[in-house]
Design goal:
243 residues, mainly alpha, two-stranded antiparallel ribbon, transmembrane helix, membrane, transmembrane
Length: 243
């Protein structure tokens, strides 16, 4: 059973890759419709974006393998809890409306699934070692640059935590690929003014809109996500193979 599970976990097809490649184009379309400009010029497109996000998620989910499906399913609920903590409770950022958009948890799952699919492509697996070096250099320069030139102390601190987490996870490229997707959606979302980060986190730590250090919180959520799915999978295996 372990061998079957491992094979399914690593399985990749062209259809999920199609959705992963389409992720940036879908993001620009969906967030553009939910933008402040769209709302002022035409009408509030929030419901359209909700529909698009759920539809994209559903098709992505349908064509994913069973392991990725579990990750996406749990991610929807886990990300909503994260929104309640980081947005509502801690107030680190806020959306253009008072409520958390319905599409956001599904968007988080799409972000994660896209990074997961990219990380498990044949090209990424074959170039795993060299990618680790380039990713480490690139993200180090990114965190240092925003910290020094933009006084984004929050990203500088979060960047250190990001690398500490990666070290613990043996520098898996999965986290880098997810981080790239996170950076893209953060840049798009703040550009369209769908959400905005506050200038000082916890009232004292300077940051920018958006902070590149946001990738750490996605990575931290992934650790919890994988543990939850692992417990789910182990429970399922015990039901199939009673002790």
């Amino acid at each position: 059973m372990d061998a079957i599970f491992f094979k399914d976990k690593k399985q990749n097809t062209n259809i999920p890759l199609f959705f992963a490649i389409g992720f940036p184009f879908f993001t620009l379309l969906a967030l553009g419709i939910d933008s402040v400009y769209f709302a002022i010029t035409y009408f509030d497109g929030r419901q359209i974006t909700n529909f698009l996000a759920i539809t994209y998620f559903s098709f992505f989910f349908w064509f994913a393998n069973s392991y990725l499906r579990k990750l996406m399913f749990v991610m929807v609920f886990l990300s909503y809890i994260g929104e309640l903590i980081f947005c509502n409770l801690l107030g680190m950022y806020h959306y253009r409306t008072a409520v958390i958009p319905f599409y956001v948890p599904f968007g988080h799952a799409i972000v994660y699934a896209s990074g997961y699919v990219f990380a498990n492509t044949e090209w990424a697996l074959q170039n795993d070692r060299i990618l680790k070096k380039y990713f480490a250099i690139g993200f180090s320069l990114l965190f240092l640059s925003v910290g020094i030139f933009l006084n984004d102390i929050f990203s500088l601190i979060s960047g250190v935590l990001f690398f500490l987490l990666l070290k613990k996870k043996k520098w898996e490229n999965l986290y880098y690929f997810i981080a790239l997707c996170v950076i893209f959606i953060e840049l798009a979302g703040t550009y369209f003014q769908c959400w905005k980060w506050i200038p000082k986190i916890f009232g004292s730590i300077p940051t920018v809109n958006p902070p590149m250090g946001a990738v750490f919180y996605y990575a931290g959520g992934d650790v919890l996500l994988v543990k939850i799915v692992a417990l789910w999978q182990n429970k399922k295996l015990k039901q199939i193979i009673p002790s």
